[in-house]
Amino acid sequence: MSTQELDKKHIWHPCSHMHDYEEHPALPVTHAKGVWLHLEDGRKILDAISSWWVNIFGHCNDRIVHAIQKQTAELEQVIFANYTHAPAAKLAAHLSALFDDRLPKVFYADNGSAAVEVALKMSYHYRVNTGTPLRKKFVYVSGAYHGETTGALSVGALGLFKKVYEPMLMDTVEAPGPDCYRCPLGLNRDLCHAECFTGIERVLNEQADQISAVIIEPMLQAADGMKIYSAVFLKKLRALTADLGIHLICDEIAAGFGRTGTMMATHHAGILPDFVCVSKGLTGGFLPLSAVLTSETIYKAFYAPFSEQRSFMHSHSYTGNAIACAAACAVFDIFGESNVLAEIRKSGAHIRECADTIAEHPRVGEIRSIGMVTAIELVADKETRTSLPVNDRIGYQIYRYAESEGVLLRNIGDVIYFMPPYTITKDEIKFMTDVAIKSIRAICG
Ligand SMILES: *Cc1c(COP(=O)(O)O)cnc(C)c1O
């Protein structure tokens, strides 16, 4: 049987309406290099979304391939309780240096959702260990996405992923978050002072003594349609949570590692969270790995003799996988040896310029960008910013059209976005944006 036939017979794909596969079966990829995916039928497709935001230095990047090959031949995996190895130790030092060693403790897990679970559990366990177990609530903001395991889903806001499972989730609190394109105060994210902060401010002030932590995606709410907001919101949130003794968890899983033009998105605001979750770009998109960074203060609350039973007993079988850690160390080497952030800002600005050529189209509501992310939000009405009818699946049709023209542009509803590997060239940017614009015109007129 062909790959496609075997797939159709046995595979249940992620985040997919399997019914759609009848008309569009999964495309078998035989190899990939740089921004290009090569298909079994000889076609090639430009990966404009970094294969779900994970790939930052191109597919089969030589540096990372070499690091993985070398590590695999030496040590692939070892139990990470009571044993350690150079790649994990070296990587932890790199990670804590991201916050000037002020988050010096690193706990590894193997995907983004698992890192979020770890941060939530650590935050609450800290409360138990420090005698305030009634602080057990978690607050998230509207538009939030933190993964899809039940704990992570409980602090997510997106009905598409959450609604069905509500009855089985943790009791959490949703606070109003920034919504800049449709700002209820009519302000502009580049000029405002995050006046919308008063919404979450009220929630935190009212329930402070019951709240363990607030979790937020810094600068970029990616899964909710690449929504971008002001760093002032983060500054205010850090100041208030610190005043009220509430932990701040920054979920850098999508936004970290240069994606927004700074190494960590939190750096735009110059704040220090209590917990930072990283994954996705961490291994350059080669292997699943995640980490939670936290402070000496949090760590100390767990540090006690066996008899006190304060330790964090969480574990995953593949914690600190040596091959994944070696890939991540190679990612840090690449960042260390060339000015990646300057390249990101340059290429990001170029993508934005190309996208802006469709700004006047009657269906284009907003074009927004930060670092290596540019999004085009399509609307029914530019004036009222009314969304397109969901069942028309306009974004999906654009995705299909662009794919047939050689670009993978996986839509989020009616938001079309570019989030390519940082290594994309000028010519590739031109091809990617030309196809996107052609596809929008083909579907929207
Ligand atoms: C992707 C993502 C996650 C979940 O990571 P997985 O590895 O898919 O479990 C969590 N938070 C944010 C902000 C993400 O973009």
The number of helical runs is: 14
Shape: globular
> How much is the radius of gyration in Å?
22 Å
Mean pLDDT: 98
Give me the side-by-side strand order of the main sheet: 4-12-11-10-7-5-6
Strand content: 15-25%
- How does the helix and strand content classify structurally? alpha/beta
The hetero molecules present are:
pyridoxal-5'-phosphate
Task: Give a verbal description of the structure.
- The protein has 445 residues and is of the alpha/beta class.
- It has 14 helices and 16 strands.
- It has helices at 3-10, 50-53, 62-74, 86-97, 112-129, 150-154, 159-162, 198-207, 231-244, 296-300, 322-337, 340-356, 394-404, 426-444, and strands spanning 29-33, 36-39, 44-47, 105-109, 137-141, 173-175, 211-216, 220-221, 227-228, 247-251, 275-278, 290-294, 364-370, 373-378, 407-408, 415-418.
- The strands form four sheets. The protein has a seven-stranded mixed beta sheet, with helices on both faces.
- A hairpin with a 5-residue loop joins strand 8 and strand 9 (227-228).
- The chain starts with a helix and ends with a helix.
- The mean pLDDT is 98.
- It binds pyridoxal-5'-phosphate.
Q: Could you outline the blueprint of secondary structure elements for this entry?
A:
Blueprint: H1 3-10, E1 29-33, E2 36-39, E3 44-47, H2 50-53, H3 62-74, H4 86-97, E4 105-109, H5 112-129, E5 137-141, H6 150-154, H7 159-162, E6 173-175, H8 198-207, E7 211-216, E8 220-221, E9 227-228, H9 231-244, E10 247-251, E11 275-278, E12 290-294, H10 296-300, H11 322-337, H12 340-356, E13 364-370, E14 373-378, H13 394-404, E15 407-408, E16 415-418, H14 426-444
Parallel strand pairs: 3-15, 5-6, 5-7, 7-10, 10-11
Antiparallel strand pairs: 1-2, 2-3, 4-12, 8-9, 11-12, 13-14, 14-16
Helix pairs in contact: 3-11, 4-11, 8-9, 12-14, 13-14
